[in-house]
What we know:
Structural class: mainly alpha
Strand content: 5-15%
Distance between the termini: 19 Å
Amino acid sequence: MAGARPALIKDAFLHSSFAFRWPSLELYSRQRVLTPPPRPRTVEQHSRRQVSERTDGIARRRCTDPCCGLAFLLCMAAMATSLRAVQNRDLQRLTRGIDHRGRVCGWSAGTEDLGLLHWCTARMQHGWILNLSSPICVARCPDLGEHALCPEDPQATEVEEPQEGGRVLLVRTEKQFLSPQQVTVETKPWVDRYCVPARALGDALASETSLLGAVGPGVPMDWLVGCYEHLRSLPSTPRLLAIAGAWALFVSLLYLLCLRFFALLLLRLALLGSSLLCFVAALVLIAVANPDAVPGLLPLVATSMSLATGGLVELNIAYTLSLGEMPMLAGILISGLILGAVLLLMGCISARTSLEVSADCMRESCAVVMGMPSLLLLPVLDALVCQMMWIVLLAGLPALLSSASVSGITMFGISGVFRQLHLAVVDYVHIAALVLSCFWVQELVAAACLFATAHSVAACYFAPGTNIWQKVRHLPVAPAVQGLLVALTCHLGSVARGAFAVALLRFLRWALWALHLAFARQEEGEKSKRKSRGCGACIAVACDSIMAVLQAWTEFLSSHAYVDIALSSSSYSTAASKASKLLRSHAGVVSTLSLVAAFLRLAGSCGLAAAAAIAARTAVARHLEWQPMLSEARFQLQVSGFPFVASQLSLLYEEVQAVSPELLGILTAIATMLVSRALLFNVECAACTVLYCLLWDGSDGVLDASHLPESFWKFARDRGIASKRSAKGLEPRRRSQP
């Protein structure tokens, strides 16, 4: 220390003399002395400067996009007011028949007391038939032998009247007589609008086989008729239907449990099985196209061809299968299948880390759904609101269309039933506003459910604890309900803004196809018009494809933007921008998770539906085998003092004896498909939320979550992201270094 003091004094002296001799450099020297040398910036500091917000938990709630929320409320108020104004409109011009003079029966002037439409008869070579081109309005359906004023063929006359300047005025006059005609066909009123021949109406109502039998004879038609008969008896089997629904729910929950513990194993087996299936399909196609190439598969191919040809003959389809006539198509299919198998195998090997992260995301999402059962209410709410909006749309459109002027048209040789609507511009605007509003409500409820899922999963992600059950203790009783309340109060504007973008694209697609159908219904004209309609159809398909891609991308981006809103409580535009950047920087793992989730949802739904249908069909078909066990159970219940349960078991067995096993299997498959798709869609949304929370949490270079799967830590280490504990542990060491 003694030697250091003279050195310090010497340095100070030199610096003072340096400043005295060159006063022009005094400011520069002081700046060099006072300003510390720049330190190299680490990756962690760089990332923290880029991300200005905290990523260690969910931000405090604040109201976002209030203008969009106010616009949505005003739109809903306008829709309710317009529906209330048109709910009492008269729909008779849309439902009642139109006579040969263009009058609406029971509504137009002169037909107030003539509310039914009747078709007169015409005498032909083989007898009397209905003249479907000359309907008239009647007060009641005439009986046999009565007379009705029926129109005769119109008679047109033309008169030429010379005018000044050499012009000629052509006056065309059309006359038509109404003559009383005896009724030769007995008719009865149908839906209180039309007089239909009694024989045809009685046959259609009394025997359901008359319409199906006219399609074509054979075993398939008999099976359809039998299914229709059993469908009519389904309302009398409520207990069996309830058990089928419970079985569908149990199978779906069992699949979620398997995904919770064996997601990665199931994913690898599914990918390997798909690749092997592609290889086998390619070999079968090779054998079909060239049987000499694979002699061992020739008997299988011959048997399959025989069965297929026999089935087509049974269906009265005169066609033979032969891929040998299309070698080019067979070669393309074979190449595609082999390429798909190779790509699946390469994907399993190269994207191993992404597959592990995706599998763990599915596992964590299944755990979240099982730990928070309130999330299962969201698909039910979404489906109910969606159906309600369809009902409102179907009820509101006729009321809006009732203000249009109508004119009768002839379709399929029948006049008086079909009509053409002549709408004004205001009517088109009202219809478009109603359709867009209904779509907006549907998408907003779906977006609110997505936000509720994201809010619940994000809260569980940052909650303290080492497993899902410890994390759930720090959450409210019903996180999904709280998420819905937050979405509809604090973030109604943001949710409405994202929902409007999707609803607008849906509306544009529907409007495009409506215009396409309107042009397609035009009569066939010249060749140039047919070519223009063909070009219009191609343009419509291309535009619809573009808008479908835009709609899919908007839905994908909005779903992740809702997660960002749940985390950072930012506006929709800011959240969408941040989500787009974050997804683009991690496109590989995000794409892998999307493909894995869609694959597991599709394969799981189909597999569960098939398994549940086979189990239900087998159980009902073999009801005689478990009859003794059921009898013993009924006896034990009677003895134990539960007569009501015993009687319900007896009624259940009677329903099992009456129902068709095949029909019950089909209904069970449909129920399982619907339930599993709803549950797996919820799991998919939760998995995407878990992955986005991981990416958002590590965007500042540090993972703040307390418990994460091992694949998440490996994914973070590969990208230079440290954990919160390791960052805290390294801080003292860095300070102690000189």
